[in-house]
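Appendix B, Record 12. Input sequence as logged:
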Amino acid sequence: MPWWLFCLLLGVEAQVINQNIGAGTGQNIGSPGTIFSGTGNNPYYGVNLVPFGPEAGDLKVNPGMLTAGQTIDLHMFFPFYGGLYNYTTLSVNGYIGFATVLDQGPTINVGPESTDWPRQEDPAMIAPYLCKQQACPGTPESYARCDQQSDYFLDEMMRWLQEGVAGASMFRADAALVVTWHNTASAIAGRSDIDAGQSATYQAIWLTDQPGRLSYVILNYDRLGFDAQDFRANSRSGRCRALFNGGNHTGVVEVDPTQAYKNTPKVLAQRSGVPHVVRGRYMFRVDDIVRPAGCSNKTGGTFPMMIYPNIVNMLGEMTVDVNAMCLDRAQTYILMIEEREVATCNVLNAAIARCSLPKIYDWGTKTVYFQPQSRGANDEKAFVGYIYFVPPTLDPQRLDIGNLYEWYKNPMPNYLMPISWFPRNFTNPDLFNNLNQVGTRISDDALYGVQLGLYVIGYREYKDDEIKKFRPEHRTLARIATYTNRNTFDYRWKAQEEVINLNQVQQWYLNDWERWNTLYTYRVQQWYLNDWERWNTLYTYRVGYLKLAPMRPNDMNGTELLAG
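Logged structural output:
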């Protein structure tokens, strides 16, 4: 009798709910009639699957509930389409559900286009491969307990996400639900079909943080041997689908919107959203909506871009990470901003590009378009996304510099001010610019070890009669402190806290006159103005701001600060 597996793993500071559905495998690999899929050292799972089976701590789902699904407790809340769920239902039919799924005949209908809700149910579900299925016969049964490797497992899953999802470096997973469908076949397949290799092995990993505000889903496809529940691969009925359904017509997101998937769903095991890592793997960000991550070969427009951060300082000179099309290091990519300058982009890996934004000087949402610079030659269509540009005071990633009101008191009551930032927002420019040569991965902690300078930026504007408007000028005046960006594991989500001594400035970017007559109360590490400018122009900068940025070697002018 075949079986499905599930288990609950508890770590020191985390929970992992590891649920595997399908044929569980013990160590008796010579059992007659047993079918195995996958490659690598372990014969039970392929290179793109996490370990499953009794040795991984899986438990059995009741065999009598394979089709209708068995409901289990999650022991904490997982967010999905705006709802928080502490339970789920697992079915052999290839879905993780949150409502009752009635038997509708050969096809399981979900989504706004396939159901007439509220007359007909539209259940919410995560469906890696939704169609009528059965577990292959002849697989031995076994029960297992949870193991104690949950913390290590969560760490590995977070590293996986960093390599494929823009913005996942700040995500801290506290629980994971792992479901594996092993050696399933179409619902009316016979033994000859199964022996011919028409079986499937695939996996869903659902991770969430402790507050239950954000979650990610990783789908792994080891083997897909059928396109539908119909026999002999005719695919005339019961077409298999891979999707996220919000339920009650709130929305549906296909795992792969390409034409190749529509022709034959089996292509999911051959392609990947992270082609630089492994085949058959797809990643999604799941909270109030489902956002595809990784990359897609879908031509632009219908495939939304993942942009992090998507709320950006209007002063620019910072970077955003983008998930869009699958990238080629030999090509140059650009991010076009509505009615503004073009942002240049660097390829981090095949799934993520990092774009350096210019100054925008506008408050509001702007449409952005990501595409290769050689669009005309290859006829690619742009991927479309949105970025919300805000003033510096509303920037979610602004520097925290203590009590803001004390900065305006004269004299200042305290010249020691706290400052804090998140270290994973800064990368070492030397390693970053040579990712393809040194082979550094985004999850490598060494990439975030860099010296940071705290700079004073002066602002002034003057009337330009030629353009009939005021022309803004941002000038780096001085560097007042230097810090070492902490790149240890716990600073992935933890803020780094330091202190500014406003009576000590490392370097001025003003001349002697300006320093002696306008800023005599401060000492700096380095000036970025010459003597004449310090004597004659410093007073014209009536306002300014602080900027934390990676330091460049032999930085003597400060005219162009590196983005984080």
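Residues 1-42, 138-147 have pLDDT under 50 and may be disordered.
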